[in-house]
Every structure is written in C-alpha cells, then in structure tokens.
TrEMBL record:
Belongs to the class IV-like SAM-binding methyltransferase superfamily. RNA methyltransferase TrmH family. It holds the Pfam family MRM3-like_sub_bind. This is RNA methyltransferase. SUPFAM superfamilies: alpha/beta knot (SSF75217), L30e-like (SSF55315). GO terms for molecular function: RNA binding; RNA methyltransferase activity. Residues 30-107 form the RNA 2-O ribose methyltransferase substrate binding domain. The lineage of its organism: Bacteria, Bacillati, Bacillota, Clostridia, Lachnospirales. Keywords: Methyltransferase, Transferase. GO terms for biological process: methylation; RNA processing. Coiled coil: none annotated. CDD domains: SpoU-like_rRNA-MTase. It comes from Candidatus Blautia stercoripullorum. One of its GO terms (cellular component) is cytoplasm. It comes from the Bacteria.
Amino acid sequence: MITSISNGQIKKIQQLLKKSRTRREEGLFAAEGIKMFREAPADRIEKIYMGASFAEKGTWKEILREKGLEGKAKDLTEIVEDKVFKSLSDTVTPQGVLCLVRIKDWSLEEMIPENKEPLLMVLEDLQDPGNLGTILRTGEGAGVTGIILSKNSVDIYNPKVIRSTMGSVYRMPFYYTSSIQEEILPWMKEKKITGYAAHLEGKNNYDQEDYTKAAAFFIGNEGNGLSRELSEKTDVWIRIPMEGKVESLNAAMASGILMYEAFRQRRNP
C-alpha cells in the first residue's frame, strides 16, 4: 500500500494532473471516478490506483472481469491510503479510483466514417474545460463524427475536461491542428464539407439550412467568439435567434443547439 504523498508514483500522477506537457511526454492522462474506470478501453489502461476504502468493496474486481483483465489485476492495480488518494482528487468527495490511460492519436481521416456523412465541430481557441467536455459528450450523443481544435485551445486531457466528458473522451475522434486556415479549410474543401459559422450577421436562422450532407460547425472563443478572419473563410453564416438583450450564448450551449438540429435533420430527412 502507498502511504505517502512523497511516493514516486503519487508525484507522477500529480504532474499528469497538473501539466499538459507531462501528459504529452508520458503519453498518459489520468481519469478519476468509477464511470471513467468502467468505460476506459481495456487495451489503454496503464495502471489503476484505488483508495483503501474503495478497494475493500471489491467493485473493481467485477469491472476488471468485465474488461477481461482479471488475470492482470496484480500488475495493474495499486492500493493507496485514503488520505493520500484524496491528494490526487480535486472533487469534494473522491470516488476512490483513478486510472492512468494511454493517449490515443486520431487522424483527420478517422473523422469521416464510411457509413454516414461527416458532422464536425471546429473549435477556435476554446478555453473553458467544462465547455469542451460538454461539447464532446453532447457531440457523441448527437452523432458528431469528429472534433477539430486549434492549437491554442484547452488541453482535452485536462482533468476538468475529462470529468465532464463522462467517458466520451475515450470514443470521440478529435484532432489538434496547427492552423485551421492552412490545414483544415483546404482539407474540408477537398472532402466537400460545408463550413457553417454561427454569426450575428447570418443570413438564415440555424434551422433554415440543410445539414444532411457533410457539414462542420465553427465555434469560437468564449470571450471573443469566432475570429473575423476565420469566419469570413467559412461557407455559410447562420444565426441562432435570441430575444431580450442577450447577444450570444455559451459556447457549449450554442454547439448543442447546432449539433442536435443536424441530428434531427439526419433522423428525419
């Protein structure tokens, strides 16, 4: 049992939780909680750390059995004293289990499935971890086939992002690009994907366009919105009508409205 926060493994986890650079160098990220443990792909789990109280319950044995990993339990698991485990959690009531999971690299081509038209989210300099996590989770539910992020966006493996995805981070293809304009726009043109930018000057309301063909929604930074330079290079400007004095919506909320309108159209063409 690990009984000290000075333990080398504990220090490594703390670095993975705090620094995106460490996550990239190690090729690992930390996922806390029973749901994240249960949904983690078996072939990507590097290590499982459990608080002593959680380990006593035996739930983890059932989960390992479901994953076909019970024979590797000794090598994969590590018991941690409860007070030490608490130092690894930023939640008020830790669930007692944390996994180290190997990072998966996706390609742009993996965002274009063979059996359906692509539906993409292109995020420019998104900064809020909760927004990104919500977009991933909502996107999976709405049938989004991939998420593209500018290099200055929040790290998708930030613990707050991970927690708010509720497992979708394991399944939703995503790709960080060095330049949306130089890499993504030409690729979209080649693949005949229409780019829609939510904009106050949009000609039509969002529900007056056809998203049954290959489509991508562009969402900008929480404070500044989509940059003028990028929005001018998208194909269509659309607007989300609002009453009162509201000028814009939360990035995750706007994304959800657009994604589910596309999903509605595709279910009822």
